[in-house]
Design brief:
The chain is of the alpha+beta class. The protein has a single domain (32-122), classed as mini-chromosome maintenance (MCM) complex, domain 2 (Sandwich). The chain contains two helices and seven strands. The strands form two sheets. Strands 2-1-7-6 form a four-stranded antiparallel β-sheet. It has a three-stranded antiparallel β-sheet with strand order 3-4-5, with no helix packed on it. A hairpin with a 4-residue loop joins strand 6 (96-99) and strand 7. The protein is elongated and about 75 Å long. The termini are far apart. Residues 113-122 have low confidence and may be disordered. The protein binds zinc ion. This is NusG domain II-containing protein.
């Protein structure tokens, strides 16, 4: 093997390692998601870290969900009670905004939390006693 080949092989390994690392890191930071469910079906999942506006139009219903500063809230809704707009901002695990007339649910899913919890559960020695 020539010296140049060894350098090339080393470079490829290095690039692969860096890519793995980058993918791992982005996977970690993409933990927090906002899941929008309409009529019991998942309408879409959106990263909580990215400011954006989600427009949901389903039949005659119209809802506008806003994600801002890592928090989600109902910006606009044409439901008769308007209760969903009064439910404030959500950013934590299992927090929800519900628009009952539109059967629309906005839920925060923190992937990181559920993952670490699953690991913790596995570590609990609850069946050692015989
Ligand atoms: Zn509503």
């Amino acid at each position: 093997m020539k010296k140049r080949d060894i350098l090339l092989a080393g470079g490829i390994v290095l690039v692969a390692l860096v890519m793995l690392l980058v993918m791992h890191v982005t996977g970690e930071t993409k933990g927090d998601q906002v899941q929008v469910t309409v009529n019991g079906e998942i309408y879409g999942t959106y990263p909580l870290e990215k400011d954006q506006t989600i427009e949901v139009t389903e039949g005659e219903f119209h809802n506008v969900i806003r994600i801002e500063d890592g928090q989600a809230y109902m910006e606009e809704a044409d439901c008769p009670d308007g209760y969903c707009k009064e439910q404030g901002r959500i950013s934590g695990q299992k927090q929800t905004i519900v628009c009952l007339p539109h059967k629309l649910v906005v839920e925060v899913i923190r992937q990181k939390d559920t993952d670490s919890k699953a690991v913790d559960d596995d570590l609990v020695p609850d069946t050692i006693a015989k």
